[in-house]
Amino acid sequence: MESAGDAKVQVVEGIATIENNEAGKPKPKPLRIMISGAPASGKGTQCELITTKYGLVHIAAGDLLRAEVTAGSENGKLAKEYMEKGLLVPNDIVVMMVKNRLWQPDAQEKGWLLDGYPRSYSQAKALEDLGIRPDLFILLDVPEEILVERVVGRRLDPITGKIYHLKYSPPETEEIASRLTQRFDDTEEKVELRLKTHHLNVEDVLSIYKDLTLKVNGNLSKDNVFAQIDSALKELLEKKNAASAT
Question: Keyword ATP-binding, does the record have it (predicted)?
């Protein structure tokens, strides 16, 4: 028979977590993860794999911004004014949106995965000033020539919305191939400019998270990339469980 002071051990997705029943013993804090990667680094795929296995709340600043505007929130209305004028939404508005989302009950209970944000030193510093700091900052590292190849080879099926790649994921039929289009910013010249901006910004962000950064070799299969991330997240959970148990 289990006593009030016994600990329950649960296994979720192969990971043992400890739920301590003893009064006054805090549960382990959930994972707080940030992930960054250049265009075509495979970040979207890894976010999906991480959230599926670990149940974290996936938060992308761009999606959040659009949702706030649609909902007509106070921050959304402010953001809409700038967007309608063709201006960038100021950092302080986006930071407040991110902060409010991270402090929602689901993110506090399950943990969160902040996708592609912060993108600059000022954004990272603003989050630090609010006491928002990740357990781990994941950076997907892919050689620039591979990123260019991935982007330039992308094609869109305007009918189905499916994304193909001429080399890695070619269309199934000639009929589909004949209607594929290329996005205007998926040219070599434009992607090199986007990559240059990304590299400059990510170095500034890393200066804040240098002690928390995990550089992952992103030039592998999606499963091998995830294996690197999964190993680090398992280790983090084990440390949190051990700290809670003591």
Answer: yes
